[in-house]
From TrEMBL:
GO molecular function, one term: phosphopentomutase activity
Gene Ontology BP term (one): carbohydrate metabolic process
Keyword check for Transport: no
Protein name (record): Phospho-sugar mutase
Keyword annotations of the record: Isomerase, Magnesium, Metal-binding, Phosphoprotein
UniProt key word Metal-binding: yes
Limits of the Alpha-D-phosphohexomutase alpha/beta/alpha domain: 43-181, 206-306, 318-439
InterPro entries hit by this protein: A-D-PHexomutase_a/b/a-I, A-D-PHexomutase_a/b/a-I/II/III, A-D-PHexomutase_a/b/a-II, A-D-PHexomutase_a/b/a-III, A-D-PHexomutase_C_sf, A-D-PHexomutase_CS, Alpha-D-phosphohexomutase_SF
Length: 572
């Protein structure tokens, strides 16, 4: 415990302001457990950047941890691009302190002689990705904690292609950050280097979303009745305008959730993956008999979609279903335009459904699979420039990227694309749900399920680590009566064939993920979160579907199979 006290005592020196020192002194005197949690580690970059609870301490988001990260990034940019007028763009979301933190970050960059484009008010995360490229910046920052609870905030770093940082830059930036002392942070802003931006970038971004997310062949947009909710987040400044520009005029906004609010007062969690978050929207949809419900997370990079099933009931699509619908529709549009020539690709991630690859194969389109996180899909695009064109890509966690004008998941253009799919289906006497079932008929019926086990604090991190050790040292050889064919260990970069006992090398960056695949096409993945104290288990099972009218029975059988597996693995 004395180690934490010694580390915390450094925060009582003149390097830190009075408010921080007062908070730390109180913890030293009254709450040793809380003190330990705040200082047992330093805030780290994960798959989604740096994200955590706000407050004083090295394991918290505050002026000094953000300042140190920004000072380290400034130093790295200066080293990487010498003798250049460096430029960065900064955006922030609706969370508590996001605007204040954004200005602190801008101050540090400017104090290091770096030109800053700072958005005047909250903006969607994808607009920051767009702005980095549009303004020819060398890097970008967005202050957001995505869908985490109100006490969280975060810091995402983008590189000059508009994608989040990837190797080798990420580890090199972290090394520079870790080498710094808090006393080395330059907080004294050069206001002449800070330019406030807003409407001009907004207009170009929105137009680009409309150009990429809509198609001339779509008919009767006014016939599609849409319910939209921003869940108190930033999307309210972009999505309604984009829908209007695209010709969707029958849009009904959930007024109780319109105003941005970091407390997210009408929901337990502002996460569009959860049906409860969209309940107000689906209630409104039932009241007015809407065709589709769309809700976005606080920083507007992910979206949840609810549509009417064959019985007319509103059901929430999962991220894999949405990704498959969008990928299939986009490829068809490329095909109709005569743009498919074998030099196109779609992207997804290792824990997402294999149905994306099946869909792409039917059209002769390359399917690339990356580690979890859109920064890896952005890297795919950068690596393929000049050889393959990117159509679209997504992952199971309710995110999608339409084209490459934004190099991160984008709920603005994805909202437009969802409406295009729904409007197109309705004009043909079909529905978005029926289009999904037809994809299952054409390929296979895939059913996915996710379990997230939360383990907080130091003990939690150790428990999660031990769970992964156990899965590696005592591998499962049979799942629900089907032999395990392959074990993919992305930490060791190995693909082990259990039938012939051969081992291949996996040619993508390492990550703490373990995946089992069986003879009957079942896939189970285990992955500790890079930004939250949890471990996630992803389940995917499949079966043939011969006709849409048999979908309900096949789905019920697959659901039962997933529950058997969960019980078998003692995860229930």
């Amino acid at each position: 415990m004395s180690t934490y006290i010694d580390k915390a005592s450094l925060w009582l020196t003149d390097t830190f302001d009075k408010e921080i020192k007062k908070e730390i002194k109180l913890l030293i005197d009254t709450d040793q457990d809380q003190l330990a949690d705040r200082f047992y580690k330093d805030m780290e970059f994960g798959t989604g950047g740096m994200r955590g609870i706000m407050g004083a301490g090295t394991n918290r988001i505050n002026k000094y941890t953000l300042g140190k990260a920004t000072q380290g990034l400034s130093n790295y940019l200066i080293q990487t691009f010498p003798n250049k007028q460096l430029k960065v763009a900064i955006a922030f979301d609706c969370r508590h302190n996001s605007q204040k933190f954004a200005k602190i970050v801008a101050d540090v960059f400017s104090a290091n002689g770096i030109k800053v484009f700072l958005f005047e008010d909250l903006r969607p995360t994808p607009e920051l990705s767009f702005a980095v490229k549009h303004l020819n910046c060398d890097a970008g920052i967005v202050l957001t904690a995505s869908h985490n609870p109100p006490e969280y905030n975060g810091y995402k770093v983008y590189w000059n292609d508009g994608g989040q940082i990837v190797p080798p830059h990420d580890s090199k930036i972290i090394d520079v950050v870790n080498s710094l002392n808090f006393s080395e942070i330059k907080f004294n802003a050069n206001e002449n280097l800070i330019e406030i931006i807003g409407e001009k970038v907004d207009s170009v971004f929105t137009d680009s979303c409309v150009n990429n997310g809509t198609f001339e062949s779509t008919k009767n947009r006014d016939d599609l009745k849409v319910v939209f909710t921003s869940l108190h987040g930033t999307s309210i400044v972009s999505v309604p305008e984009a829908l209007e520009k695209a010709g969707y005029n029958n849009v009904h906004i959930v007024e109780e959730q319109r105003v941005p609010n970091g407390d997210f007062p009408t929901v337990v969690s502002p996460n569009p993956e959860e049906p409860a978050a969209l309940k107000m929207a689906t209630d409104l949809a039932d009241k007015i008999q809407a065709d589709i419900v769309i809700g976005t997370d606080p920083d507007c990079d992910r979206l949840g979609i609810a549509v009417r099933n064959l019985e007319g009931k509103m059901v929430l699509l999962n991220g894999n279903q949405t990704m498959c619908l969008m990928t299939d529709f986009l490829i068809k549009k490329w095909q109709e335009a005569g743009k498919l020539n074998g030099k196109q690709f779609v992207g997804s991630t290792i824990v997402s459904t294999n149905l994306v690859s099946e869909i792409a194969d039917r059209y002769g389109v390359v399917s690339k699979v990356s580690l979890t996180g859109f920064k890896w899909i952005a890297k795919m695009i950068r690596d393929a420039e000049g050889t393959l064109d990117f159509i679209g890509g997504g992952e199971e966690s309710f995110g999608y990227m339409v084209g490459d004008f934004v190099r991160d998941k984008d709920a603005v253009s994805s909202t437009l694309l969802a409406c295009e799919i729904a409007a197109d289906a309705k004009s043909k006497g079909s529905s978005m749900y029926q289009e999904l079932l037809q994809i299952y008929v054409d390929n296979n019926f895939y059913k996915e399920h996710l379990i997230a086990i939360v383990k907080k604090g130091m003990d939690g991190a150790q428990q999660i680590s031990q769970m992964m050790v156990d899965l590696r040292e005592n591998p499962v050889t049979e799942i629900d009566g089907s032999k395990v064919l392959y074990i993919y260990d992305y930490d060791a970069s190995t693909k082990t064939n259990l039938i012939n006992n051969t081992v291949e090398t996996i040619e993508i960056p390492t990550s703490n993920v373990l995946i089992y695949e069986t003879e009957d096409g079942t896939k189970i993945a285990a992955r500790p979160s890079g930004t939250e104290p949890k471990i996630k288990f992803y389940f995917s099972v499949k079966a043939p579907l011969d006709a849409i009218e048999n979908a309900q029975k096949v789905e019920a059988d697959l659901d039962t199979k997933i529950q058997r597996i969960i019980t078998e693995m003692k995860l229930s």
